[in-house]
Specification:
By secondary structure, this protein is mainly β. The chain has three helices and 15 strands. Helix content is about 10%, strand content about 40%. The strands form three sheets. Strands 5-8-9-11-12-13-14-15 form an eight-stranded antiparallel beta barrel. A two-stranded antiparallel sheet has the order 1-2. A two-stranded antiparallel sheet has the order 3-4.
Length: about 250
């Protein structure tokens, strides 16, 4: 059954590693950053691995962006936001139990939210992903994922709706919400860190985040049969490179 899940062609820059050279997903790196609580001001340039080493950040600070640390507070960024889909990546990493990792992404999605930097409990986010847009650079695998794993005909979208937010430090926060896949809704928590903020040539404010979490796909019934259940790891790392544009205030 392994030949129905062809391995991908991995890019070296898509990985973080620990001391022994073992790869860490972006979700592991960012989640560990929240758990370890590294010194403030350093996480804009590096991430903390499980062994305590710092590696170059998987998602470099975008060109033109400035560090959030010391330049803007959560409160100063309050407002309504729309996801900048051209500058946002929603990806995932899965692997064979005895083979290499498979990396993929979703190409079509939309999102919006409200950020209340003075009271994060009042913040909220809504994300909708078109399941048909899944891409792993292998057409045979993509067709199987859409039909057998995601049951696209009955469940064309994947959604996330936030239910709470918690500040970890001056540049890191945890977003809790419900993730719906194949009609199954389960709670998840995603760790995010701010990596930059910029004003473009039109004066539009754009904020950049990176984050991730790891889920058990079996909790959402994302599987085909017993063979794929055994040969493909149930753990899937979700990775987010997010750019959000603050909406202009409504005119009176």
């Amino acid at each position: 059954m392994l030949d129905t899940w062809p391995p991908d062609r991995r890019h070296p820059h898509d990985q973080n590693t620990d001391k022994a050279g073992k790869s860490l997903s972006a979700a592991q790196a960012v989640t560990d950053r929240v758990a370890i609580d590294a010194p403030r001001g350093e996480i804009t340039d590096a991430v903390m691995t499980r062994d305590g080493d710092r590696n170059p950040c998987l998602f470099p600070r975008p060109p033109g962006a400035i560090s959030m640390t010391g330049t803007a507070t959560f409160g100063e960024l309050s407002g309504d936001y729309t996801l900048d889909t051209a500058r946002t990546r929603i990806g995932f990493v899965a692997r064979h139990t005895i083979g290499p990792r498979v990396r993929g992404r979703f190409a079509e999605f939309e999102g919006r939210g409200h950020w209340d930097g003075d009271d994060l409990s009042k913040s909220h986010v809504q994300l909708t992903i078109q399941a048909a847009s899944i891409q792993t650079r292998n057409s045979q695998r993509d067709t199987m994922l859409r039909g057998k794993f995601l049951n696209l005909d009955d469940h064309p979208t994947i959604t996330f709706t936030s239910t709470g937010a918690r500040q970890v430090d001056e540049s890191t926060f945890a977003l809790t919400g419900t993730l719906t896949i194949r009609g199954v809704t389960k709670p998840v928590t995603v760790a995010f860190e701010r990596i930059g903020v910029e004003h473009d040539e039109r004066g539009v404010l754009r904020v950049h985040f990176q984050g991730g979490t790891t889920i058990n796909r079996a909790d959402w019934g994302v599987n085909w049969n017993a063979a794929t259940g055994a040969s493909i790891s149930k753990k899937v790392a979700l990775e987010f490179e997010v750019a959000a544009v603050r909406n202009a205030p409504a005119r009176p």
